[in-house]
Amino acid sequence: MENIDWGSLGFGYYKTDYNVRCYYRNGKWGELEVCSSEEITMHMAATVLHYGQAAFEGMKAFRGVDGRIRMFRPYENAKRMISSAQGVMMAEPPEELFVEACKKAVKLNERFVPPYGSGASLYLRPILIGTGAQVGVHPAKEYLFMVFACPVGPYFKEGFKPVKFQIAKDYDRAAPFGTGKYKVGGNYAASLVSGERAVKEGYSNCIYLNAATHEFIDEAGAANFFGIKNNTYCTPQSSSILPSITNLSLCQIAEDLGMKVERRQIPVEELAEFEEVAACGTAAVVSPINEIVDRETGKKYTWGAEPGPVSTKLYNTLKGIQDGTIEDKHNWNVFVD
Ligand SMILES: *Cc1c(COP(=O)(O)O)cnc(C)c1O
User: Which protein residue's CA is at the shortest distance from atom 12 of ligand 1?
Assistant: First the structure.
């Protein structure tokens, strides 16, 4: 295993040995190629550069208590990348190709898979981009699908500690019938100004509201949102949020733990009624929130300085399944070895 101080890893790029690539040309996908270069060469008129034909995924591989390496629900990421590809008219990498490429990226970089108990994991970043040249606004005829891997620590430097969010009504992340439900590059470009401002003002990120009326909670930065009250797990239903696989898993875990699960619109004022609120995603895992401030009115919603009992239970259960210490009864893990 690589000699890395796993405990002090943050969430960022880290050079590993190999990446895996596959090209779409003449109407079909080629063979998976293994590459050790960090660079991509492409045509200057590639559609990714002008018209944003770009989608990505994010998932993690973990070294379990038994030493075996598990990827968490990669078929769900494959399905979502296909949906994103359809959303911006790109060639779709078939599910099996997607999972095979991910497995290969993990195996080839096995020495970078952090040890059990380190709190770190191997983050996989599959990307799909239009590489074919176009000058008019049309989809490319050629695409590159690739997967690279980086060992990562926690997304928020606080780790499993509460973080603060800001409601900003002067920016929207995604329009009601726009691309918010796809993991496509443009959405993240559109969130940078408000996100960086939130960070500068002392918050982890923004809470985005539904763009049409700014009444309901959509997302917590690049993570989904959930609130807990009366033994119920509540998470927003909206056409413009990214369907988080972590959230999907937490809904199931909450149900397995005997909680009720509600997917519905969540009015901002309801924040006052939640016993616990949190952001969730592959990178954020479960990040409890202890403060949400409306930037415009100054209205403040607060929760305890320590993670609440339900968020803690959900976090520990999800982590236990990923680490192989809790039974994986829904068969979410895919073994790499
Ligand atoms: C990736 C992402 C999430 C989290 O999805 P996971 O599948 O749980 O990683 C949530 N919101 C946005 C905007 C995202 O890009």
Answer: 222
